[in-house]
Amino acid sequence: MEKAKIDNDYILEVKNLKKYYPVSRFSISKNRAYVKAVDDISFKIKRGTTMGLVGESGCGKTTAGRSILRLHDITGGQVVFDGKDLSKISPGKLRRMRPQMQMIFQDPYSSLSPRMPVGEIIGEAVREHRIVPKSQYRSYILKVMRDCGLQPQYFYRYPHEFSGGQRQRISIARAVALNPKFIVCDEPLSALDVSIQAQIINLMKDLQEQYGYTYLFISHDLSVVEYISDTIGVMYLGSMMEMGDKKRIFENPMHPYTKALLSAVPISDPDVKMNRIILSGDIPSPVNPPSGCKFRTRCQSCMEVCARKVPKLKEYEEGHMVACHLYSQD
Amino acid sequence: MGLLNIFKRKKIEGIDNTMYLTLRDERRISKENNKIIKYYERMKARKNVPEEEYLTQMRDPNNVVEFENLHTYFFTDVGTVKSVNGVSFDVPQGKIVGIVGESGCGKSVTSLSLMQLVQAPTGQIVEGSIRYKANDGKCYEITKVPRDKMLKIRGKDISMIFQEPMTSLNPVFRIGEQMDEVVLLHEDGMTPESAKKRSIEMLRLVGIAMPEKIYSKYPHELSGGMRQRVMIAMALSCNPRLIIADEPTTALDVTIQAQILELLREIKEKINGSIMLITHDLGVIAEMADLVVVMYAGRIIEKGTVREIFHSPKHPYTIGLMKSKPSGKTTDDRLFSIKGQVPNPINMPDHCYFYNRCDRAMEVCLGEYPKLIQFSPTHFAACYLYDESRLSGDDLAKE
């Protein structure tokens, strides 16, 4: 790995990514209202590492994940994947790129076609993209299934015959079968029980070690993100609030929102009482977010400048970026 | 014949030897079920039942609810699902009892049995008793209370907060109408005006800033956290003695979850009631509960105070659950995981239900289901690991 160039170190580079949804589709007036689901976020992911994206529901983390894969068109910005700008690439070329980037969806009950047997679910795209020669097709699928902890006799079974954890294994197998370099995992654990969650986390870690996948792990469960990620980005209302190495974020959270988020996680020890920061109120509507810093309406250390200026994401220590006026010099 | 072979499914070990029910079997089962269901339904629909039949005495006067050997079964066409299979525990006055377990372990059905809300006619309480002490000092045997009497208890003395606030609020009525209904139904001498006053007061109690405004809004206009607050306000409006919170924060974000849990704790202090908190999140339990009941596949496998359960868990399942949750302390090596999955609820084995997933399974475990073994006045676990009389010599040597 050391021989690789610096440019090549990062598999994915997101620059000023924006995704706006118009509120009313048929509005003629020029100043249409937009829901700024993802509003100017930038980050990079190193090859073979995992980036965790956390935030409350409605903060745009799923939209960010989908925009990166170009599952829908983006409003602005750039997504550079493996040296190619995905936002400008032609549909034909994009299609040929698809096997390299895959997605694991949140709900294993609705993301698998109920009319296809497992072998077909996993194998359809393999055949379509001609990953392996036809003669090896079946043995390849069975190998992928074995890697993901699925027994070979499941090949002809249908998704309804499986429990949630097994289904999630099928979705993982479907993604992995295409030899991807990069996988977006959109809350793959939230529909599962605790004991099954641990199995799936271990499976994902094993696959990463074996094949060197890069993950973008979207989740609202901070303890899982802490365990699986190398770097973490904290999002709030479409903007990146804090970003950096896992250790730095968890040991020294700087942004008031990250602090509140970390303190809100219940701890499985009755004797440890956290000094809890309880945020008042709800996440504001993304149609007209607060001026300046978006978090200021719920922030406990809100200042006068917060309403005027949008804080920029700045590096305050190595590998730790925060967007907050508390730490800016001016 | 090559063409036909494409459509032919190969016989595969593991699929084709599983037992499938024939249509005839299914018909026979449903016929038997109908007989059983009819019996229970008739019992419930009786009118003018004398009070003596459903009044009992509590074992311990400090308890609000006592479950004893409760069995709730679902009679489905493919067989009987023993959702709750011999559950006994107490809910003391003024305490929070947490029930943890994976999905399908019967924790919700236990609470629904207490409310007589089990999905009838397939779901029936078959055996056991639930004793409940009402405000007026009378003790009801919930399993025998007829339907018309239950209407007066449900929602007034025992109220429930459901998991998904959007589906449990009626979308076509305003918040206020739904809240007033509870008060008007359960309290005598209430006028619409006084009911409105009470509702607004309750909304203020749960920390809603402008209760008058919220009162005349529809559920879809509120956020998830707000809706859950409305649900809590509604549950509180008749001064219940017991609140059942069925996964009250599962659908909410962590920051909102912290708000709601804080609120529940405050409320408990204010009304001096008890709370039955059902959740799968061990963190929530550690934070909120005084007593913990761990359920697995319809049975209690361990119960005790929070400290006992979290500091010295005994049952391998409880230990596994604690270890499989990543926390700040876990290093980068593999996370502990419990192998396998919950057995099929229809054909439960006779031996310990956890046998096939347990990493400390022994030969004795294949015997009859282990009894609850007592460790302290409050701490029990059902596992042969601690049953000294059952352990043979070499099993002890392994320890």
Question: Could you please describe the fold and organization of this structure?
Answer:
The complex is a heterodimer of chains A (330) and B (399). By secondary structure, chain A is an alpha/beta fold. Chain A has 11 helices and 12 strands. In chain A, the strands form 2 sheets. Chain A has an 8-stranded mixed beta sheet, with helices on both faces. A 4-stranded antiparallel beta sheet of chain A has the order 2-1-4-5. In chain A, helix 4 runs parallel beside helix 6 (164-176). The longest helix of chain A has 18 residues, at 194-211. Chain B is α/β, with parallel strands linked by helices. The chains are: A alpha/beta (330), B alpha/beta (399). At the A-B interface, helix 6, helix 7, helix 8 and helix 10 of A face helix 9, helix 10, helix 11, helix 12 and helix 13 of B.
Could you name the key traits of this structure?
heterodimer; A: 330 residues; alpha/beta; 8-stranded mixed sheet; 4-stranded antiparallel sheet; 11 helices; 12 strands; 30% helix; globular; disordered N terminus; B: 399 residues; 20% strand
Q: Distance between termini of chain B? A: 62 Å
β-sheet strand percentage of chain A: 15-25%
How many distinct beta strands of chain B? 12
Helix-strand makeup class of chain B: alpha/beta
* Total DSSP helices of chain A: 11
Give the strand line-up of the largest sheet of chain A. 6-7-8-3-9-10-12-11
Coarse morphology of chain B: globular
Query: How confident is the prediction overall: mean pLDDT of chain B?
Result: 84
- The amount of helix of chain B comes to 25-40%
Q: How do the SSEs of chain A run, as a string of H and E?
A: HEEEHEEHEHHHEHEHEEHHHEE
Helix count, DSSP H or I runs of 4 or more residues of chain B: 14
Poorly predicted residue ranges of chain B: 393-399
Task: Tell the overall outline of chain A.
Answer: globular
| Global mean pLDDT of chain A | 86
> Biggest β-sheet of chain B, characterized?
8 strands, mixed
Largest interface (CB < 8 Å)? A-B, 47 and 49 residues
The structure class of chain A reads alpha/beta
Major beta sheet of chain A, specifics?
8 strands, mixed
DSSP, total strands of chain A: 12
H and E string of chain B: HHEEEHEEHEHHHHHEHEHEEHHEEH
